[in-house]
Specification:
- The protein is α/β, with parallel strands linked by helices.
- It has one domain (about 15-25, about 85-240): Rossmann fold, CATH 3.40.50.1000.
- About 40% of the residues lie in helices and about 15% in strands.
- It is built from eleven helices and eight strands.
- The strands form two sheets. Strands 3-2-1-6-7-8 form a six-stranded parallel beta sheet.
- Strand 6, helix 8 and strand 7 form a beta-alpha-beta unit.
- Helix 2 runs antiparallel to helix 3 and helix 4 packs parallel to helix 6 (about 110-120).
- The structure holds magnesium ion (MG).
Amino acid sequence: MPQVRAPSTPFASVWFDCDSTLSTIEGVDELGNARDPETLAAVAELTNRAMSGELALADVYAARLGRLAPTRAECEALGARYVETLVPDARLVVDALTHLGKKVGIISGGLLPPVAALAAELGVADTRVFAVPIHFAPDGSYLHFDVTSPLARNGGKVEVLAARPSDERPIAFVGDGVTDLEAAPVVERFVGFGGVARRPAVESGSEHYAPGPSLATTLPFLLTDEESDLLRSNPSFSALLHHR
Ligand SMILES: [Mg+2]
């Protein structure tokens, strides 16, 4: 277990991955569960081939969404599921970071409408929500996703986070997956989160790793000693600091 090290300088912004970081579900699995077993198996195989590096994420993304063809109504339902399955203390952690004057953002390889629904619930400004836009036909059926989105290909989070403006730096980024860890070099601090899915490659590759299950286990890595003291003396947030 790595030593917890509080930052010496406050982070100006804190970014979170969505699936298995803010919410306990994986959006693509959730969409697949509403399909027949054959589609579900095909989607799982595509995901595995992307994770093993056999296929590029951009190709898998298109093939997977083509198979799933999520409707507008299904995307709305997924947004509601994200909210129902928030990781413990997610709401309070976002409130605490905002209270301390930090900008909070969400960056996800998931679909924008459901991720935006989760962001709205958490009070995250929509200008700091990055995910893959999707287009529907007038009857609500699936048309296509935005193929120009960097988040639908490998290295997308690196690209988006590297381009954040100077008033958001220093940046801390929290995520559970290898595409999150990939972005560690372009932020000032990456914190791996194992509260939903403990991934050995991420745990061993992260200088800072929060075990969960509460999202509050990330706070010791995100707050200076002074910021922790401020929260500790605030009755609304003091309970968050006990998750060590
Ligand atoms: Mg994730």
